Amino acid sequence: MTTRRTAQNDKALDAFIAAKAEIDVILERLKALSDDHFETHPDEIHWGHVGTLKHYAGLLRQITDSAFKEGEHAA
C-alpha cells in the first residue's frame, strides 16, 4: 500500500512541478512584455491601451486574490 501511495505522490509532484514551470514561463513573458511597455510607444498610447491593461490587471487580480486569499476569496 505504501508503494502505491508513493507512486501517486510522485505523479502529483511531477504534475505540480510541471504546472509551476508553466506559470514561471508565463510570468517571465509577462514581465518582459511589461518591461517593454506592452510594445507601445508613449506617442501611440490611446484609451484602448488603457482598457487592455485594466483588463489584464483585473485578470491578474483574480489570480492574486485567489492565491493570497484576498478580495472575494478572503476568509
The Cα radius of gyration reads: 19 Å
How is the main sheet built? none
Poorly predicted parts: none
Envelope shape: elongated
Helix content: over 70%
The average pLDDT is 93
Amino-to-carboxy terminus distance: 37 Å
The helix tally amounts to 2
Order of helices and strands: HH
Write down how many β-strands occur, each being a DSSP E stretch of 2 or more residues. 0
SS-based class = mainly alpha
Strand content: under 5%
Structure characterization notes:
The protein has 75 residues and is an all-alpha fold. Helix content is 75%, strand content 0%. It contains two helices and no strands. The longest helix has 34 residues, at 2-35. The radius of gyration is 19 Å and the shape is elongated. The model has no long low-confidence stretch (mean pLDDT 93).
